[in-house]
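Today's session is about reading a structure prediction critically. Students often jump straight to the picture, but the first step is always the sequence itself: look for stretches that repeat, for charged clusters, for runs of hydrophobic residues. Only then move on to the predicted structure, which in these notes is written as discrete structure tokens rather than atom positions. Here is the chain we will use throughout the hour.
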Amino acid sequence: MITLSLAEIAEIVGGQSYDIPDPAVTVTGPVVIDSREVASGSLFAAFAGERVDGHDYAVRAVEAGAAAVLAARPVGVPAIVVDDVVGALGALARAVVERLGTTVVGLTGSAGKTSTKDLIAQLLQRKGPTVWTPGSLNNEIGLPVTALTATAETEHLVLEMGARGVGHIHYLANLTPPRIGLVLNVGSAHLGEFGSREAIAQAKGELVEVLPEDGCAVLNADDPLVRAMASRTKARVLLFGEAPEADVRGEKVRMTADGRPAFELHTPTGCSDVTMRLYGEHHVSNALAAAAVAHELGMSVTEIAEALSEAGTLSRWRMEVTERPDGVTVVNDAYNANPESMRAALRALAAMGQARGADGGRTWAVLGQMAELGDASLAEHDAVGRLAVRLNVSKLVAVGGREASWLQLGAYNEGSWGEESVHVSDAQAAVDLLRSELRPGDVVLVKASRSVGLEKVALALLENSTEGEVAGR
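Below is the predicted structure for this chain, in token form.
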């Protein structure tokens, strides 16, 4: 973070100083919310959670080197006390970003946010110092904490924005006002909370509403609900996608023999070929979105194509492909899941299997619950199970309770798989099954919503295979 005195911070957040001998003491380190991450000169933000109260760790944080604590009550060590720590953190982030004058890129969407954010970061790093959201810390705490890592040298700040309801994106975008706002898609993620895709579109479109007149709204030309957001912004609109009208367009889209996307990238300044290191055709749309942002910021089509062809994954458990020494390939995509990303992952699995030919191994889909789908949950899980059959996935392992049984039932009803699909109770049962049946050449996809914790399956399959090669990173 840029250097600020405790007195300056207290003024910015409207806080009261307690136990601070010298208000001129400066915060020179990062703002952290975990006392174990404190570095010399940090500001420790104490939150009272459901299980842990950060105020209980205030003394430990200062002993570890924190300059002070941002807190909701006095804690016996140097502290700036506010009524609302979340709000104060946001106010601090806004003040810092305004002082920096860095170019802020905000992005949202139902699927692909983190992968696209990682691609944008890798492209923009070639232009200059870039800060981006780590993992998917895209809420009212994670976003300002990320923004506060920017320094005077930061040229680009790439911030992922998530929404659990109408108004959330508007709040986040006003903390760190973007000049470029990217909306990827409107899908079924959080359908249970929003009620309809139209309501999701209303929430996602809040991002383009806050853009300035000299800003740029980057919109998906292939998604009608996103494309319609052009009427909700006063900023210039830049379309990306495979539609003929897209300003940044992908043509001649194809998959390589091993399941990686390739396409011809067209921008207003020319065209160039892209062959990605990442797996799955869904990355074409992500790559075009990232290319549109990079084009808006002045990168040439040649530079963009080269960067996209070299880009890997920066965030864990998103189509993380590892080949074990015995020839079994594990695809860990267990960070999260919704119907759109589940279908994309299954198609990528099928492509990887096809690339191995008739003499290759089997494809395994180890799938769990897609959360927050509301009344659509049964139909969506059933549809995913059916798709696994249509794609000729060799084995389906449905892990968990009711939703997993719906996955298996869909597969069974689509193809009468019998022994080709199985329902197991938990991750350990899935691991036991796979360890007993996997053989060289098999490809295993592991995917479910984050709350399921299915990454344990992938990690267990790799724990004794440290010599394996991680692809796409």
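Discussion point for the tutorial: Residues 37 and 396 are 40 Å apart (CA to CA).
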